[in-house]
Amino acid sequence: MAQERTTCCVVGGGPAGMILGLLLARGGVEVTVLEKHADFLRDFRGDTVHTSTLTLLDELGLWPRFEQLPYRALTKARIRLDSGDVDFADMTRLRQPHPMVAMVPQWHLLDMLATAAAEEPTFTLRMSTEVTGLVRDGDRVAGVRLADRAEDGSLGPESELAADLVVACDGRDSRLSADSGLPLYRYHVPLDVEWFRVPRREGDPEGGLGRVGRGRFLVFLDRGDYYQCALIIGKGTDARLRSGDVQGLRDLVAGMNPWMADRLDAIGSWDEVKLLEVTLDRLKRWSVPGLLCLGDAAHAMSPVGGVGINLAIQDAVAAGRVLAGPLRAGDDAATDRAAASVQRRRTVPTVLTQTLQDLAHRRVVAPLLSAEATDQVDTRVPWPIRMIERFPVLQWLPARLVGVGALPEHAPAWARRAPMPVVDASGASSLASSGRKAPSSGPVSPRA
């Protein structure tokens, strides 16, 4: 079997994988990022770039390039109750360089990061390359097995890529974390999410909007020309919903938001409604000799608060900072110690965030879903919302938790750059070279 070699193999070309690859390359480490798809042109729903990530891009010298992307600035989140609206989070209260959450199609962000990383001589990005398993040398992970992926999804002959360290950034369904045998802790989760899009018109509410009422919970994220919508449903009830006509979904949304009723024909069929099966879990150990898991591969997050991407990127920054030196020196023992230290640093923000999400599941979401099922709707406003309504200064707290996080990470000095010139920041080169168009399920929002 053919074998190649790299110093660090990062599996998964999402935000965490690309940030880690960029940092390590700037640290002089030979790094190879493997991405199983042929391009980044997929319809992501978590298209958020958080306040702390915007600060990181500034530190990396990438803000001028990011500023050219078609983003929509989200500065406030509002909850709409049957009794009226409550402003829940206000990003402008944050003392940050960029006090907002930027909604931007994720393929643009990934393309920008790939372009910046490709400017480093030790960086390699291999697309259409699927990892099929781990390579072991005794008790140590020594690399990965991989194969080229054809357009029809079929895999070519397997080969091996040897590495001093393999980093799993391949998401909540991580093949590598499953193959590692690392023990997993799971929370009980009472919900799943149906994602769909609804056109947005001039004069409609801006920013992030949560609609709570009639035993239902809907979230609308302002993407400029449309809303990215999330309907919270009971765990495992997707099949029952889809057994009926999609008009049932339109009627449900119209019942909660009568001002949307005249545009819900845009939800043409159930094919346009995507199910997210929500999980909330974390590995009890994130690493074994030669392998480190980051982001959703280490801790799958609930969509509550939309913070999973932010946590994954901060994991990657923490990892890049401590791994570059040992990897550059070729010291396996020091590399393993550094990999283990990432979990110790990132455990507190991970557990805190998951605890808050679990609390929201049990105290807010589950009662709402239960009320809907029994047709006995609890009309009381949850006490945290009542407190924020009474004391608006408290809007700083959810803005901080969502936009910045419990432990924001910053780029190490050796990875920082002066503002870099714009090089194809629109992503046009990537789209043209792939011969494909962007996903057609909705328009790209104009930059706010």
Explain how this protein is built.
This protein is 33% helix and 26% strand. α1 (15-26) packs parallel to α4 and α8 packs antiparallel against α9. β9 and β10 form a beta hairpin. The protein has a domain at 3-54 and 101-186 and 281-357 and 412-434: FAD/NAD(P)-binding domain (3-Layer(bba) Sandwich), CATH 3.50.50.60. The protein starts with a strand and ends in a 14-residue tail after the last helix. It has helices at 15-26, 51-59, 63-66, 106-118, 175-180, 238-242, 247-256, 308-329, 332-374, 383-390, 396-403, 428-434, and strands at residues 3-11, 31-34, 48-49, 72-74, 76-81, 84-90, 101-103, 123-126, 129-137, 140-149, 155-168, 184-186, 191-199, 208-213, 216-222, 226-234, 274-276, 281-283, 287-288, 291-293. The protein is globular. The longest helix is centred in the C-terminal third of the chain and has 43 residues, at 332-374. The protein is an alpha+beta fold and 448 residues long. 45% of the residues are buried. The protein has 12 helices and 20 strands. The strands form 4 sheets. Strands 1, 2, 8, 9, 10, 11, 19 and 20 form an 8-stranded mixed sheet that branches. It has a 7-stranded mixed sheet with strand order 6-5-14-15-16-13-17. A 3-stranded antiparallel sheet has the order 3-7-4.
